[in-house]
Amino acid sequence: MAKLERANFGSRLGVILATAGSAVGLGNVWRFPYMAGENGGAVFIIIYAVCVLFLGIPCMISEFIVGRHGRANTARAFSKMSGGTAWSFIGYMGVLTGFLITGYYAVVAGWCIQYIWASLIGLMQGSPEYFRTYFEELSTDPVRPVMWTIVILGLTYLIIEHGVRNGIERASKLMMPTLFLLLLVIVVASCMLPNAGKGVKFLFYPDFTKINGNVFLAALGQSFYSLSIAMGCLCTYASYFSKQTNLTNSAVQIGVLDSLVAILAGLMIFPAAFSVGINPDSGPSLIFITLPNVFAQAFEGLPLLGYVISLLFFVLLSLAALTSLMSLHEVSTAFFHEEFFMTRKKAALLVTVMAACIGSLCSLSLGATDVMTLFGKSLFDWFDFITGQIFLPIVGFMTCVFIGWAVPHKLVHDEFTNWGTLNGRFFHLYIFLVKYVCPLAILFIFLHQLGLLK
Ligand code: PHE
Q1: Which value, to the nearest 10 degrees, does the dihedral of the CA atoms of residues 406, 410, 414, 420 take?
Q2: Is 429 left (phi over 0), alpha (psi -120 to 50) or beta?
Q3: Which of 136, 236, 246, 263 has minimal CB crowding within 10 Å?
Q4: Mean pLDDT computed over 351-366
Q5: What are the pLDDT digits (tens) for 257-307?
Q6: How far does residue 298's CA lie from ligand 1's centre (Å)?
């Protein structure tokens, strides 16, 4: 068996930007700001930060440890670390989760591209009703969304096939700074609108009366999704880290960047929404129906600025989606490349074609045909439910139990401290968290999401 030459990231910045690229995605823009505003503002943000720090970051470090130790795709990395025992199934499940998400995430990413196009040709103006109809017609159209799903997957393919350094790292180094810049431009424009202060207040006003157990679980679930935990992405990227990469510092930096983008997204959305008196909602309707309408109205007096802001917003959204999609695609590409001894190109092509099939079916299930509806849920919603609410908690839980209880602590300590060259001050805290706190917390979210815990 020929030994495969292992790719790696070329710089520390590359590691941070690529992994932050995976974390920063649609979840930051459409879910976080809304959840913060609805769940007590500043208090939610503090709870969220605590979840990221004490639960998200330890889980992230655990995946990094498995990935870097294995220096292989997620399935093989878990199998190596567990000595080929039954624990290997976590890795296979991680790959499967990553793969299943790739298809439906691409559908939403495809909508973003369609909206760039629509902004470009000046279609992003009209009445609130117009925006609603526009989105409904688009998402249930049998042709356009399928075409855009294929386009964005094709774009992802072009990046992935260039490899880790020339593809993923290079693209991230270009796209992430652009994304930050666009974010800042839109935040400034949004905060300068009349009455913008109300939106800032909605986001940051600490309302202690809104705090209850559900808020904690919501913050926890959001932090896991937002950090791309349990989808194989972090493990796969960590397999390209070098022996010098400081896993703890990297996880902290990525957690901070991701949270910062989420808060800035709130500062981009709410001041504009409140300045025109529109109540923001959550989910796809926020970004695809409410926001275009908000931008159109907020910048009514300055149509050129409105045009530019709407265009920039959808470029930003597409970049965020694309960097996350790259990491999802890479999970399966690395798997096929290494497990089935295909060239990277072939593996990437295979994943692209399979994801395009799943994505197209998900897209069609939203209305073009009702053949793909099961128990009242479309195929799209099923993928979302199974991956996000079932597989994610299971893989996250098992990863913590595996690292906390099954892997010899000496091995974990070696990776944590880069073989004794780094200070291991936080090692005991880390082990305590992954052994007890993280699994319990994940169990709670799981039961809560299934409605078994109120
Ligand atoms: N973290 C991404 C977001 O916030 C979602 C994602 C999950 C991306 C898993 C890749 C893998 O949107």
Answers
A1: 160
A2: alpha
A3: 136
A4: 94
A5: 999 999 999 999 889 888 888 877 666 778 888 888 888 888 888 888 889
A6: 30
The pTM of the full predicted model, rounded to 2 decimals, is 0.94
Q: Exposure string (b/e) for 64-83, b if CB count within 10 Å is 16 or more?
A: bbbbbbbbbbbbbbbbbbbe
Cα–Cα distance between 283 and 30 in angstroms, integer?
Answer: 6
d(CA 300, CA 286): 19
**Mean residue pLDDT across the chain:** 91
Whether residue 196 has its Cβ less than 6 Å from ligand 1: no
Tokens 């970051």: give the residue.
57
Q: How far separated are the first and last CA of the chain, in Å rounded?
A: 53
Q: Residue by residue, what is the 3-state secondary structure of 185-242?
A: HHHHHHHCCCCHHHHHHHHHCCCHHHCCHHHHHHHHHHHHHHCCCCCCHHHHHHCCCC
Distance, CA of 16 to CA of 184 (rounded, Å) = 20
The answer to whether 67 and 236 are in contact (CB under 8 A) is: yes
